[in-house]
Design a protein that fits this description.
Helix 1 packs across helix 2 and helix 4 packs across helix 5. About 25% of the residues lie in helices and about 30% in strands. The chain is globular. It has one domain: 4-Layer Sandwich (L-amino peptidase D-ALA esterase/amidase). Strands 1, 2, 3, 4, 5, 8, 11, 12, 17 and 19 form a ten-stranded mixed beta sheet that branches. A three-stranded antiparallel beta sheet has the order 14-13-18. A two-stranded antiparallel ribbon has the order 6-7. The chain has six helices and 19 strands. By secondary structure, the chain is an alpha+beta fold. It comes from Halobacillus naozhouensis. Belongs to the peptidase S58 family. Pfam families: Peptidase_S58. This is P1 family peptidase.
């Protein structure tokens, strides 16, 4: 099992676009020739587009792009820009009079930082798609959908830390699999290998983590935690494994284990945690081993997201807190 750049998984192109001043952005994974795809929504407050198309009982077998965006539900407009750019390139489901790109997506809530009146729109979605085709560097941290992301919001923004976008990929023989994750969680991000908190609800004066799970338990009967501050972790698994549409959906579901290992608590009523899986459908592999790897790359992408983030918008980042400690 060797780590590889996620951009080396053939059949996919990866792009970001963002507005740093407004603290929001969009991330796109494009499959010009189509990819089998599935989705799993586990959070209680999701914001998604075209996820019904991925239901195995429905007609369409391939998607042509998947987007992740900030901006809350307003950010779903970015998908229109992705579609427009792909249609202009002749990419999509052939309906004879044109080609209709199938572009599911999910959004996260980042309106608490930057300019809440500026959201990812069709122009930003178009730009992210163009950047994917141009093979622009696919960065981590405060970029794309992770530009305004934050974590540990149980007690509000005064105790929150910076989230971001992370990606991680590996190869095992002919199999290549990776994940892109935008981390904007209600809970804390924990390294499962050590049990150490990397980012989360943080007391800046005492320079210590508060432990979101412990705080939740203490306040069970008061309902005083800031449960409506806006959250959601969203991501995309990309691979070349041979899968049916049903298996792609199951893979996305199992990959949520990677979120559960690293985000505590995860999948809450105020998170919209959503993972997509997309594959070029080439390499026959054991599905149980593939499922383990899907959860693993999601786990590592979450860790990369917070470790790559930098302090911004009055939110401290992992690198800042580590130096303080």
């Amino acid at each position: 099992m060797n780590e590889i750049p996620i951009t080396s998984i053939e059949g996919f192109a990866f792009g970001h676009a963002d507005n740093k001043e407004a603290a929001t952005g969009c991330t796109v994974v494009v499959s010009e020739h189509g990819a089998k795809a599935g989705v799993s929504v586990r959070g209680g407050s999701p914001g998604t587009r075209e996820t019904d198309a991925l239901n195995p009982e429905n007609l369409v077998e391939q998607v042509h792009g998947i987007f992740l965006a900030g901006g809350s539900a307003f950010g779903l407009d970015a998908g229109t820009g992705v579609m427009n750019e792909l249609e202009g390139r002749g990419v999509g489901f052939d309906v004879q009079i044109t080609k209709v790109p199938i572009v599911p997506g999910a959004i996260l809530f980042d309106l608490m930082v930057g300019d809440e009146q500026v959201r990812p729109d069709r122009n930003m979605g178009k730009q992210a798609t163009q950047n994917a085709f141009l093979n622009r560097p696919f960065l981590k941290g405060n970029v794309g959908a992770g530009t305004g992301a934050s974590v540990g919001k149980l007690l509000g923004p005064v105790y929150a830390m910076k989230g971001g976008v992370g990606h991680y990929a590996i190869e095992v023989g002919e199999l290549k699999i990776g994940a892109v994750v935008a981390v904007n969680s209600f809970g804390d991000v924990v390294d499962p290998a050590t049990g150490n908190c990397l980012a989360g609800a943080y007391d800046r004066h005492r320079q210590c983590f508060l432990g979101s799970e412990q705080v939740l338990l203490k306040q069970m009967n008061t309902a005083s935690t800031n449960r409506f501050s806006g959250n959601t972790t969203i991501g995309i698994i990309t691979c070349n494994a041979a899968l049916s549409k049903s298996e792609a959906n199951k893979l996305a579901s199992i990959a949520h284990d990677g979120l559960a290992r690293t985000i505590r608590p995860s999948h809450t009523f105020v998170d919209g945690d959503t993972l997509f899986a997309m594959t070029t459908n080439e390499v026959t592999v054991d599905l149980n081993g593939l499922s383990y790897l899907a959860a693993h790359v999601v786990e590592q992408a979450v860790i990369q997201a917070v470790k790559s983030a930098t302090s911004a918008y009055q939110l401290p980042a992992y690198s800042t807190v580590t130096k303080e400690g």
